[in-house]
Each structure stands twice: as C-alpha cells, then as structure tokens.
Write a structure and sequence with these properties.
alpha/beta, Rossmann fold, nine-stranded mixed β-sheet, two-stranded antiparallel ribbon, about 30% helix
Length: about 350
C-alpha cells in the first residue's frame, strides 16, 4: 500500500512581461467572488472552471495549482490525497484546491488513467455493495457500484478532515495554522471514474449528519462523462433530495460511451440529477430524460472502433452510437470554454 498526501506551494498566475494582443491571466478575474456569489447552477463560468480542474486532475498537485491559478484562483493551496492498494483494486486520487484567503475550496477526483490497469479493474468491479444511506422515507439500504464506492471510501476521512480544516479557517496543508477566512463555498468535480467518485462523495456529505458543517458549504457538483453509480432506487432517492436533484450536474459530450455504463447485463443502474448534452455546437442542452444503460456488450466493441474511425478521415462519418474518443476530458474542457473566453493557455480557440 502506498499513501500519498502531497501539497503544492501557493501559485500565482504568470503574466507576459510586455503587453501583447493575447489575453493575460487570470482567465476569470474576481473568480473567488464569482464562486461565492453564484446562486443558480449550472453556471457557464463555474462549468468551465470545474471541467478544467477535472481534466488536470490527471496530473500533479503542482500542475493543478498552476492551472487553477491561471483560471483565477491565484496564490491557491493545492493538496493531493491518494491511496493505492493494487490487490484491493484501490487507486484513489483527489486534489483539494483552497483559494488564497480560504473562502473557496474545490475538490477534484482523478478519473481512470488510460495506462493504469488497476483503474480499469476498479471500473469493471460493478458488483453492487449494499450501503447504508439515510434518505428519509426509505429503509436506508442502497446498492452502489462496488469499485467506485471502495475508492471514495479509501480517502474519505483524509478528504473530510482537510475540508473540516477549511471550514474552520485553517490551511489545508496543516504545516502552519495561519488565520484564513472560513470556507464559504465548496465545489466538487471529476471526469470519468473521478466523476463517479465526486457524485458519491456528494451523496455522503449530504446524507451523513456528521458532515453537516461541510455539506452546508457545498454549492454544486459538476461531473463530466460520469458513469452510473448505483441502483434505480438510489437514483430515485437522490432525485427526491432538494440538493442532489438540482445541484449534481452531469455533462455528456456527443456519443461518450461511459455515461451508458455499467451495461444492463451488470444489473440495474440509473443516473440522477440534471443532465446536459453537447451535440454539434454551443450551448449545451438540458435533457428531459437521463441517459440509460447500454443494452448489450456490443457497444463496448463499437466505442473503440469509433475512436479509430475518427483518426481515419475517410471513415469519420460512420454513425456510431458510442464513442470512446468522445470521452476524452479535453473535449469537455474545450466545449465548455464559452465563445470569446480564453483557454487555460491564454488563447482563443474556435470549437467545431
């Protein structure tokens, strides 16, 4: 077992030495105030920031801190909390970003790493765990994806401990008890496996009275390419909850295959919360019905073929139902970068 708990030094976004026609950082000025003030979700600015944070959660604490500084959280503190136990199919990595004065905290979970076999085994470990979740009017027992739940649970107490420090106006890193403003706004995000972990963590925070002080500060959860995390009974209980039904927001890019998983042969699973799709152009469109499970395993064969097809222009127009290429985090980041808004690199890119 390897336990990693690393912190990155405060980062301030760099600006060009001489004025140029390119946009200088940060991408969003007064981002902390924006994240504290926004009341209605989803919000375009928040979605862009969350997608960027989720995408760079595949990197290191230093990189996450730098990118979030460019976005507008200058002088932030970034802490990585991770645990790896190969034999237990545990590969759980999270990043907690605290704004310079402490008012805003972002919690981002890393998704499935393409070259990490344990991550893929975690995703495939769909056997449901019966978990006690205290939803009013239910027996309090729900089936959840075993692999996702195990990975959230592996780092939960370290993550909660860090968030509690933020609530109390303390540094995430714990090296010094400098006085900060108490946390006013918490956001959770993730892509792929990280999205599933983000949604599960939200359910835990909202339903467990022990986490009430943290849950009170939770403003929204933004997930990208999220698979289903539990049974239809769990989804219905979440959709009956005042917070989870409105503020756990899922984004699906085109034919991304992962939101259709696990397939029906794995047992009944379902999504909850608002769902937004991107098809051909801005804006993202709210869906009336959530994405359903894949009917059979043929889609798991079709999805990688769609990736190959995209690379071969002469077959790029084949109408695949599922695509692995559409799951890539960079698609979510680029398509949530609003018209006229610079990227995390400070330039403007036209989306197709």
């Amino acid at each position: 077992m390897v336990i990693s708990d690393k912190a990155a030094p405060p980062y301030t976004a760099l600006r060009p030495l001489k004025p140029t026609r390119t946009v200088t950082f940060p991408v969003y000025r007064e981002l902390v105030d924006k994240l504290v003030r926004v009341k209605a979700h989803p919000d375009d600015t928040v979605a862009h920031v969350m997608a960027t944070c989720a995408g760079y959660a595949y990197s290191t604490a230093d990189t996450v801190a730098m990118i979030m500084a460019r976005m507008g959280l200058e002088d932030n503190r970034c802490r990585m909390i991770a645990e790896y136990v190969d034999a237990m199919f545990i590969c759980s990595t999270s990043f907690i970003v605290q704004s310079s004065e402490g008012r805003v905290v972002l919690l981002a979970y890393r998704g499935t790493e393409p070259a990490n076999g344990i991550n893929w085994l975690t995703d495939a470990d769909v056997h449901p765990d019966k978990v006690a979740i205290a939803f009013p009017g239910t027996d309090g027992s729900f089936a959840v994806h075993e692999g996702f739940y195990r990975n959230v649970r592996a780092t939960r107490y370290e993550v909660v401990s860090a968030l509690q420090r933020a609530v109390e106006g303390k540094s995430l890193r714990g090296e010094q008890d400098q006085a900060l403003a108490p946390m006013e706004a918490l956001y959770i995000t993730g892509h792929s496996l990280g999205a599933a972990m983000a949604a599960l963590m939200a359910v835990m925070l909202i339903t467990d009275p022990a986490y009430a002080a943290i849950a009170e500060k939770l403003r929204a959860v933004y997930t990208f390419g999220q698979p289903m995390i539990g049974s239809p009974e769990l989804a219905r209980a979440c959709d009956a909850d005042a917070f989870l039904s409105k503020n756990v927001i899922r984004y699906i890019y085109r034919r991304d295959v992962i939101p259709h998983l696990p397939p029906k042969v794995s047992g009944p699973f379902a999504h909850f919360g608002p769902e937004y799709h991107y098809e051909q152009s801005w804006p993202w469109i709210r869906q009336n019905r959530p994405t359903e499970q894949m009917g059979n395993l043929l889609g798991l064969v079709e999805a990688p073929l769609a990736f190959v097809s995209r690379q071969l222009r002469w077959t790029s127009n084949i109408p695949f139902h599922y695509s692995l290429d559409d799951h890539a985090p960079q698609h979510y980041v680029s398509r949530l970068t609003g018209p006229g808004t610079p990227t995390e690199f400070g330039d403007n890119v036209l989306a197709d």
